[in-house]
Specification:
mainly alpha, 4 helices, about 90 residues, globular, about 65% helix
């Protein structure tokens, strides 16, 4: 785990941020479309930043907006990676 991942894992744990299979709708995606985007770009930069910003703006977490975006992306990637490992993708 990289330092970046450790940082956001700790924040996710502290603030209870966890994505489920229903969470992609928070950024205007389905699980399938988000999975396809993840396969093309593991950083999910192919999801419009405006969607991440809107999600982050509405998060009730006392950290800067850019950190909320990173936290949301981290939680999304963690969920997607877990699903892929389960399905051996």
């Amino acid at each position: 785990m990289t330092e970046h991942e450790k940082k956001y894992e700790a924040l996710a744990e502290k603030y209870g941020i966890r994505w489920t299979e229903n969470s992609p709708r928070l950024v205007g995606e389905t699980l399938k479309t988000l999975m396809n985007k993840y396969k093309k770009d593991v950083h999910l930069n192919n999801v419009p930043l405006r969607r991440w910003d809107i999600l982050a703006y509405n998060m009730r977490v006392p950290i800067p907006l850019y950190e909320k975006v990173c936290l949301a992306k981290y939680a999304a990637r963690k969920m997607l990676k877990s699903i892929m490992e389960e399905n051996n993708d």
